[in-house]
C-alpha cells in the first residue's frame, strides 16, 4: 500500500462513537441531561438499540420523551447502585451523542479495555451506522424495544 494513498472517509457516526465522552456519575446529573434532551426534543434525535437495524429517520418528540421515560425507569430499577455511571455524553451543555449502557451487560464498561462493551442504546443527532452487538439482545430487552418502537 502506498504511503500517499488517499484516506478513506470515516462515517461521522462511527467517528463520534470513538470520540471523547463524559460520564454521568450521579442520578441528578442524569435528570439534567434528560431535561436538556427533552428541551431539544425536536432536535433531530435518532434512537438506536445497538444490535437492531439502525433507524432511518429521527424520532418524534413523543418517541424521544417516551424512550427517556422508559430507559430512565429501566436504569434506576436494574442498576442497583447509588450512582449512575452507565450513561455517557459528548457534552453536558449541548449534547449531540449519548451512550446508554445496559445494566445487565456491563462487562468492563469502566477502566480500559481493548474490546470494551458496546452500549445498549445510543441517542444521536448523527444518522447511526450499524454496530453489531457484542451479544444478541436478550428476549426481554428485544420485547421492551419492540413495545416502544415495534
Brief characterization of the structure:
This protein has helices at 12-17, 27-39, 61-78, 139-149; strands at 22-24, 46-49, 87-89, 97-100, 121-124. The protein has 150 residues and is α+β, with helices and mostly antiparallel strands.
Strand content: 5-15%
Task: Please tell me how large the radius of gyration is.
Answer: 16 Å
The total tally of domains equals: 1
Q: What is the average of the pLDDT values? A: 83
Q: What characteristic shape results from the CA principal axes? A: globular
Looking across the biggest beta sheet, what order are the strands in?
1-3-4-5-2
Tell me the helix content.
25-40%
Distance between the termini: 46 Å
The overall strand count is 5
Per DSSP, the total helix count is 4
Structural class: alpha+beta
Sheet with the most strands, sense and barrel status? 5 strands, antiparallel
Please describe what this structure looks like.
The protein is α+β, with helices and mostly antiparallel strands. The protein has one domain. Helices cover 32% and strands 12% of the residues. It has four helices and five strands, in the order αβαβαβββα. The protein has a five-stranded antiparallel beta sheet with strand order 1-3-4-5-2. A hairpin with a 7-residue loop joins strand 3 (87-89) and strand 4 (97-100). The longest helix is centred in the middle third of the chain and has 18 residues, at 61-78. It is globular and about 35 Å long. The termini are far apart.
